[in-house]
């Protein structure tokens, strides 16, 4: 039963979700020990163990992994770190073996240390929960528990910060964009859980609160005020909360995950596990059996089952799912509604390009540049020009796009991509040295892109430097999705 003295109607979250966080908090404390968890400080980005600068090198990633292992009381010898490349945005996977386990990280996220840290924490939570037998993968809410556990090891700020991520994704010279949710809990759920946890710890100062993202911070402060008003008592909470209660996924979180209200997650074998730290509109969870087969809990949403009136939003969903012709139709509706909508024109340009229609892609991007010149619209026009083999025009557009970013230097992923594209255009124009310099800049900023190494290998060959070409091909092979766990 829900504790009425703790969570009445005016509480910060809906009663079912609060009850789930309440019961699972008590369960985690019971399983891992109050004193053990209370001794864990809340970790922030200025922690001296975390790297001050980030270049995405193997040494930096190995060091970060060892730090997260230390924070979560996991011996690094028991968990092997491996890499895969997955353009469908899976951030990480956990594979449980008989003698040792494997944490898989997506090399595409090498330039995003915060996301890597949150992914590592999620995967190590799987290790702590599954290998010890504390929870099994057929428990309906086990993925949510895996998301929640790092809060109690001091990583709540990083978990909340990693719940939403935006970015661009390329296939050759074609690009897709996305705004994706990582994990199963939303930032406001973390805000509530952190506030509940600091009350249990009986803390009165919250220097970490300014580091919470706005939606998590708002819920955090609202929860603190609410618990104070209700005279929260940690002893009564731990005494009277039924930590052994079996729970299903709260309805509000089902809706967040875009699961139907009466839909149950599929049963999953125990042999291995891939987890909800993957991105994508919502994070599907896979559990590969011993033979490598595996199915997701639920298919991603399609425009056929979403009730959305905005054609731009539906077109964006279709684009993200690879339904390019449908995306063109919806973006056309958006452009018809507002012919001066540069964003809709830029997105339709991307859909045309992905569908193989470079001429119409260039026309839309050219109009978008005319309406709203920016790094995004110039890049879109440059991509279309590359496809049309108008390399000089493409070079000029990528150069213009870089000019917008250089003044602010806020988007590392876009910056590295534009360096690569400008380098590729230079190479196609016969300027080998400039092409090599730009592609190398891109690799330094984002070392997880297979095609960067492949292009640089091609450039080295044109320079007659076959040894370096071979080295780059070996590096490209490292990031190819070979033996990628399903």
Q: What does this protein look like?
A:
By secondary structure, the protein is of the alpha+beta class. It is 53% helix and 7% strand. It is built from 19 helices and six strands. It has helices at 15-32, 34-38, 58-71, 113-130, 142-161, 187-200, 214-229, 234-240, 251-256, 311-320, 324-337, 342-354, 358-371, 375-387, 391-406, 412-428, 432-445, 450-462, 466-479, and strands at 79-84, 92-96, 101-106, 164-171, 174-181, 273-274. Strands 1-3-2-6 form a four-stranded mixed β-sheet, covered by helices on one side. It is globular and about 75 Å long.
Distinctive features:
486 residues; alpha+beta; Serine Threonine Protein Phosphatase 5, Tetratricopeptide repeat; 6 strands; globular; disordered C terminus
Q: Order of SSEs, N→C?
A: HHHEEEHHEEHHHHEHHHHHHHHHH
Indicate the percent of residues in helices.
40-55%
Content-based structural category: alpha+beta
The number of distinct β-strands equals 6
Shape: globular
> Radius of gyration, Cα only, in angstroms?
24 Å
Domain count: the total is: 2
Low-confidence stretches: 1-9, 164-181, 258-308, 482-486
Strand order of the largest sheet: 1-3-2-6
Distance between the termini: 39 Å
Specify the number of helices: 19
Mean of residue pLDDT? Answer: 78
Brief account:
By secondary structure, the protein is an alpha+beta fold.
Task: Produce the secondary structure layout.
Elements: H1 15-32, H2 34-38, H3 58-71, E1 79-84, E2 92-96, E3 101-106, H4 113-130, H5 142-161, E4 164-171, E5 174-181, H6 187-200, H7 214-229, H8 234-240, H9 251-256, E6 273-274, H10 311-320, H11 324-337, H12 342-354, H13 358-371, H14 375-387, H15 391-406, H16 412-428, H17 432-445, H18 450-462, H19 466-479
Helix pairs in contact: 1-5, 1-6, 3-4, 4-5, 5-6, 6-7, 10-11, 11-12, 12-13, 12-14, 13-14, 14-15, 15-16, 16-17, 17-18, 18-19
